[in-house]
Amino acid sequence: MKKTKYFLSIVHATYLDDYTVRITFADDTVRDIDFGGFLYKHPHPQWDKYRDLKKFQKFKIEGNNIVWGKNWDLVFAQEDLYAGKNPQ
After folding, report:
1. What is the rounded distance in angstroms from the CA atom of residue 46 to the CA atom of residue 29?
2. For the domain that residue 75 is a member of, what is the CATH number?
3. How many Cβ atoms sit within 10 Å of the Cβ of residue 84?
4. Per the domain annotation, does 88 fall within a domain?
5. Count of domains observed in the chain
């Protein structure tokens, strides 16, 4: 039987400021993650719109992950977020 990594499930996310989001995982681990570095170091037509803070703030929790966009335009590895790694 495959062991489930339920603790990696993101259960809550709160916008803090700029491109920083406080993420809470199923085991109550909390990480403040800054996505700004990624957005500015990796320009891409699909992601560039999230440099607009109003659009950036419209993230949601789906499939136990934090996502942006109707079709998951922007999504990051839960393992990295849980480890507190800011996407680069």
Report:
1. 30
2. 3.30.2020.10
3. 12
4. no
5. 1
Beta strands in the chain (DSSP E): 10-17, 20-25, 30-34, 60-62, 65-68, 74-75
pTM: 0.89
Is residue 19 domain-resident? yes
Q: Which domain holds residue 42?
A: 6-82
Q: What is the pLDDT of residues 17-61, one digit of tens each?
A: 999 999 999 999 999 999 999 999 998 888 899 999 999 999 999
